[in-house]
Each structure stands twice: as structure tokens, then as C-alpha cells.
Amino acid sequence: MTDPDTTFGVYVHWPFCAQKCPYCDFNSHVRHKGWDEERFLAAYKSEIDWVADRIGSRTATSVFFGGGTPSLMQASTVAGILEHIAKRWGIARDAEITLEANPGSVEAARFRGFRGAGVNRVSIGVQSLRDEELRKLGRIHSVAEAKSALGVARETFDRFSFDLIYARPGQTAEAWRTELAEALDLAGDHLSLYQLTIEPDTPYAALHAAGKLIIPDDYDAGSLYEITEELTASRGLAAYEVSNYARPSQESRHNLLYWRYGEYAGIGPGAHGRIVADGKREATIAERNPEAWLARVETDGNGFTDLAALGREEQADELLLMGLRLAEGVDLTRLAALGGVLPSTAAIAELNELGLLRSGAPASERHSGDWRRNEFDEILACAGPGLRPETTHRPTDRIRVTPRGRLVLNAVVAKLSNSFQQVDRIDNLKAAG
Ligand code: SF4
Predict the structure, then answer these.
(1) What's the whole-model pTM score?
(2) What pLDDT shows up at residue 364?
């Protein structure tokens, strides 16, 4: 598990795919004539240099090659990028270095090369264990290829994970239960299980709008989510994030860094970063088009279309939005320190009453064998409407969404964010008694 104040990650975006999947709105592009990989490698190095000059020395505790399909990269390109990150920032000896891979046989054959380049974890886009469903999802691999890639990954890397998409058109609860049970037989210590969502401006969005693609409604999708939680828990994989399941200490450290609102450089076309320069947290967004990004980097040293310092309340919103995805939730003390705001106790209480949020110290912070009910929960349970105290936040207070709350996470975040009160005001109220 990672400490957001001491970790630093590097995200490297590879923007090319062999074929565009009809549901995908990621920054991924098909180039039938290929790309100039040496030129791209030089540009990745230049952008790393530019960010390193801006933020100074760091040690990367995680590197993540995402995409697109990074398993289409040459292993030598991956090695070149990692060597440059090591040169400019340093890479911790126990760093997690992940590469997203597709299960096509060509990519699987490259796994040993990636291992030699320094990658120690792969995340494989299996998506379904049914050939017919893979075809409908527009995927170009088969179930047999996926299983074979998982076998190679298991032999080659310290850790591996794979993705599945569920809540697909026409998928019944029983069908998902059976498919997920098969997936759990194949799984290592980590799985990513995403519900299919209809993203704007995709072929799936057009089909959906025309009534030709019908996905499960919220109720049915909720039932599938419950099955997901039940089966993963029964195999010892905890739901540590909305769509991610792992055995203890096998969580994706790089993704935890995002959700814990740590610092990371975003390198490559369309990559986003959150860096700290001169004590200020900055958001970076890079040009999405690969060739336009390349041209920008070759001219300016970076491909950023946006680089902006984040205000304190913006940081609070982002911390809340990211942190509430995690089962561990958000530390209100950190929220107050970073953003200078706290959600109102009335909003927290309302969400508590609706069964969408829980507050108080997590079990791990309580004395073992002393399962005292958290005083914050007690106060909220006892105080009637209008009688709730302005604030009862204690240093160990955390807020966490319940499994039910995860189904309406955006609404929960909006409710809390809209209730933000300046910490100074809360302190003044407390001082005034
Ligand atoms: S392989 Fe992944 S990134 Fe590429 S188009 Fe399909 S879903 Fe998108």
C-alpha cells in the first residue's frame, strides 16, 4: 500500500491499437501504415526531460504503460523509456512496473522481452471468456488466445491481472455468475471487473441511441455488481476500489496512487498528470492526436495543451472524487489540509441515513479487541434533525461509500462537494462554542 505523500508515479501513454473497439473512448488510434517508433521514443524522452526539469528530483515508485495497446510497443522502446525515467528520476528497487497488454498471440510472444526491459506486472485486456461476446465487443482475440496469454503472463511476471467487461447486452445474472467463476479460476491476485458503459461519440453510443444495443438497466446492473462482490469476496479478492479486486497487498500500487491523489507525471499523447512544482499541484493534459503530440514535443519539448495550477478547492474535489472510489475512503484531515474545506456534517449524516456512506475510523485504526462504536457515528445516530453538531471531525475520521453508495458514486461526491464548508469557518464556530 502506498503513502500518497511519498510516492511518485509515471504514466506513459501508448496511443496505438490494432483495431478500434466500438465501445472505447480511450485515446487510441489505428495506423495501418504503422508509426516511427524511434521518433516516438525520442519524444517520450524529451517530455520526461521537460517534466523532470520542472519538478526536480524524485524516485518513481511505480511506472504504468497504458493505452492504447502498449503491448504493441517494441520491448526496446519500453526499455528505453524505463532507462530514461531511471536516469532522470530514479526508479525504486521494489517499484511496480505495469504494462497493459492485449492477449493476441503476437503480443503474448513479446512478454519475455517486456520482462527483460524491466516490466514486472501485466494487466491483460481479456474482456470476456465467451468467443461470441468477444466478437460483439469488437475484440480481435479469441478466448483460447486469452487463456494462453494468461499462462505466459503467469510464468513470466511477478504479478498479473486481467480485465473483464460485464453488464453486457442481454447478459443474465446466471451467465455472469458462471463466467466470473471461470475467470476466478484463472485469476492471480488481482482482477479488474468493469461494467459496460455507453461512452459518447462511440459506435456503441450510436447503436444505443438507435435502440439497437440495449444494456442492463441500473437495477439489473446493480444485481450483477452484487454477484461480482459476492463471488470475488468468496475467493479472497477484496473490492478495494469500485471495479478492482485484489488479495491483501496485491492492489495496483500505481492506481492506488491516483485514487489516493498522489503525484504522477503523465507522459505521451493524451496523458494527464498531477505534478508538484514549486510547492503547487499542477494538472497537465497532453495533445491527444499522436502525430500532433509528436510535433509539439519536437518543437516545444512537451506535448501539453494544458498546464494549470490547481486551486485548493479543486484539489479537495479531486481528492474526494478519487478517494471515494476506494474502500478505505477519504481521510477528512488530509482533505482539510489540502483543500481547506470539509463536507458539512448534515450532508454526511444524510448520506449515512440513506445507507450510502459510512464515517469514522476504519477497523484497522481501532484497537484490536476493542470494537467500540465510533463516537462520530454515535453522535449522528443520536442527534435528531436540526440538532446535529456543526462538526465532530476527529483526526482519524474517514468517510467511505458503502457498496450501495458505489452504485451512485457521482451523486454522493456531488452532494458532499456542494456542502463544502471552509475549515476556518468551522474552527470559528467551534471556538465560539
Ligand atoms: S484495445 Fe483497448 S484501448 Fe484499444 S480500442 Fe480496444 S478498448 Fe480501446
Answers:
(1) 0.90
(2) 46
Hey, which CATH number is domain 8-258, 3.20.20.70, 1.10.10.10, 3.20.110.20, 3.40.50.1970?
Answer: 3.20.20.70
Straight-line distance from the first to the last Cα atom of the chain, in angstroms, rounded to the nearest whole number = 39
pLDDT more than 70, % of the chain? 88
The pairing of strands 91-101 and 121-127 is parallel
From the list 321, 186, 187, the residue with the least C-alpha distance to 242 is: 321
* Ligand 1 geometric centre to CA of 15 (Å): 10
Q: Is the CB of 71 under 6 A from ligand 1?
A: no
The domains of the chain are located at: 8-258, 314-431
pLDDT at 388 over 80: no
Residue 127 alpha carbon, nearest atom of ligand 1: 7
CA of 100 to the centre of ligand 1 (A): 11
Q: Are 396 and 308 in contact (CB under 8 A)?
A: no
Pocket test for ligand 1, best of 14, 16, 17 (most atoms within 8 A of CB): 17
Tell me if 68 CB under 6 Å of ligand 1: yes
pLDDT in tens, 61-100: 999 999 999 999 999 999 999 999 999 999 999 999 999 9
Report which ligand 1 atom has the smallest distance to the Cα of 68: 3
Residue owning the nearest CA to atom 6 of ligand 1: 21
pLDDT tens profile 402-426: 988 988 999 999 999 999 999 876 6
Top mutation candidate among 19, 20, 107, 139 for ligand 1, by most atoms within 8 Å of CB: 20
Contact predicate 163/123, CB 8 Å: yes
- 400 closest CA partner among 341, 306, 326, 297: 326
Q: If you search the block for the grid coordinates 481528492, which residue do you land on?
A: 319
